[in-house]
Amino acid sequence: MSEPEQTLPLDGWHRARGGRMVSFAGYAMPVQYEGIIAEHLWTRSSAGLFDVSHMGQLIVAGDGAQKGLEALLPADLMILKEARPKYSLLLNDEGGIVDDLMITRRGEHFYLVVNGATKHGDIAHLEAGLPRGVVLDHMKEQALLALQGPKAVDALARLVPGVDQLTFMTAGAFELAGAKAWISRSGYTGEDGFEISVPAAAVEKVADLLAAQPEVKPIGLGARDSLRLEAGLPLYGHDLGHDTSPVEADLVFALSKRRRAEGGFAGWHRVARELAEGPIRRRVGLAIEGRQPVREGAMMVDAEGNEVGKVTSGGFSPSLEAPIAMAYVPLAYAVQGTQISLASRGRIFTGTVTPLPFVPHRYHRKGAPQ
Amino acid sequence: MTVYYTRDHEWIAVDGDSATVGITDYAQSALGDVVFVEVPAAGKTLSKGDEAAVVESVKAASEVYAPVSGTVSEGNAAIEATPDLVNSDAEGEGWFFKLTLSDNDELGELMSAEQYRAYCAELE
To answer: For B2-123, CATH number?
Structure first.
């Protein structure tokens, strides 16, 4: 990208705390503070504070917003209840994934959180696809934080009374450090936790207050990536892209029952065909033999040495102390326990197809004890 | 004993015709948490610039190139077993391999400690 690097509202805050800044999605962002493994394990055992203000926060409003959005993504918005975030996908006409996102009904409008690296493309895609009369607002003055980990609820409930009443994938309007905050119980680590949208003008005060809680440490992008990989969660631009379909990506849960039957969304023909006949390839988890990680781009090879698949994310799991990866493999191989050969940097590695997530999710679901 | 440095952030401690090679503290800090190391076996002959060892952190993989030519006399098994030694003591217990030099003249192309410090300061 030739565009100059932008800074986020917490830029100085990260630098003051020793964050090592790198360029990501066009922004300077902290990749780590004390170290990826320490930050990763801290999040799994206590609570980590992530700045994800690079992500796009959008409002879609106006007559026809619901119908217009249903033409672009496979979620059932007719039955989507108020303040219940839903994971969904923007699809192109060929059934490829334009982006993955969270969509929430908030009164008269829909609130969308999209990936930082793709937000401008998403906005163009939405503006081209939504009918006249539907208004799209990019909330550039809004920051986004994530507080993730088993003690996130203790830290946040101390500051926001009642927030502990939220359950996984529910949200609400609260007040935090004197600012209006939209808080959902959700995240990208596999842990219990929250995502907190606040005005950019208030985010430094909010971050100070959160980081002052004894359970909380700031966490960089490095651990965010290793945490989501352990949780089996795909990363757009790596595990998902314009030429991967939701069925290939093993995201069938994001295709609602009614929409699957009725269609009427971009890419439905491919999705319906793959649901009926099976996709050609599928995203799987791989446990890698030995200690050396296999990285994105490693080839899966068959017995004759032909490239038949590809690693899309790979690294070292701090929780399991072993290398793990995600890959797209031909359907016949996408069976638990299948051994796969991977070629990378002149070496052959062995991976075993393993159920995702690698590390169990610990979400606070409705009906679970407080 | 004299310690030399390379632009690839390796250090070479030389005593006569034997040398110990590792990565610098600057390099380990830039790599982050080291999770995998592979060092060359004793007896392997290396020409200057050959891939000699592999070092991988959570995020990134990189190679260690032979800063000078010679024959490996020992690879450090300790860092293969405990890769985080490279982080905790890069310029000590975290050494990668020992080498019998085949051409001491190659040392003339390397940096002194002072030159290396200035080189790193420029990179900041």
So the answer is: 2.40.50.100
- The complex's ipTM works out to 0.91
Q: What is the pTM of this model?
A: 0.96
Residue A1 pLDDT > 50? no
Query: CB–CB of A350/A342 below 8 Å?
Result: yes
Contact present, B46 and B99 (Cβ < 8 Å): yes
DSSP code per residue over A284-311: EEEEESSSPPP-TTPEEE-TT--EEEEE
> Mind telling me how many Å the CA of B80 is from chain A's nearest CA?
10
- Cα–Cα distance between B36 and B46 in angstroms, integer? 21
Contacts of A226 in chain B (CB under 8 A): 58
pLDDT in tens, A206-265: 999 999 999 999 999 999 999 999 999 999 999 999 999 999 999 999 999 999 999 999
Prior bond to A357 cis, omega within 30? yes
Q: How many CB pairs under 8 A join A and B?
A: 42
Enter the tokens of residue A131. 């009918």
Note whether A295 contacts B38, CB cutoff 8 Å.
no
**A35 contacts on B by Cβ (under 8 Å):** 32-33
| Domains of chain A with CATH codes | 11-52+141-230 (3.30.1360.120), 280-354 (2.40.30.110)
pLDDT value of position B60: 87
Nearest to B33 among A37, A291, A345 (CB): A37
